[in-house]
């Protein structure tokens, strides 16, 4: 049984995926779920840490999916051969870690048709990756599970160099069109926090005016969208 968060991620895996890579797979719940459901999908579960790597191996052995899921120990996309995966999932990490994994492994993205990314924080950096590396944001989702709010950003190679405004990178171009309930909940929260921080910054003497301006700009964007 997958969490609502991972189930939502799984729903974005294309039906015609041949090789799915799940990077930072931990227990390998996601590839196990997908491979049980779709016999034609092969998966690679990547883990950089020994403990999670062993849990992934155990889980895969236990449900008899050894032939379908290859569990590999290594950093980010290093564990992939060039062009090996056509769908890559990176979920449950900070946005900047996801971005650095993709950036360090960009030579492995040549055959990728879809990247499904679920940053726990800082989705903006994942969207900036799209902008800088010729990917297009094709789907976005925001969801609420046990008091936490998660965002999912789905990217596909883009040959049209789609442009995004800084505001779209911050709030999500597709979320801005859909504005689900969780979008309001997230940004109301962030708004309160940022306004407090701005007050504190104004009282402090050693704050960079750039940082202050950035926060003021972000608060303006949020207010434009949730009020
Ligand atoms: N993807 C699963 C999920 O969404 O439920 C597990 C998320 S877990 C919080 C993050 C996992 O990423 C950890 O098991 C950690 O060991 C792994 N990880 C962190 N950095 C990594 C890297 N550079 N390469 C591969 N795995 C990494």
UniProtKB/TrEMBL annotation:
Pfam families: TrmK (PF04816). Transmembrane segments: none annotated. This is tRNA (Adenine(22)-N(1))-methyltransferase. It comes from Piscibacillus salipiscarius.
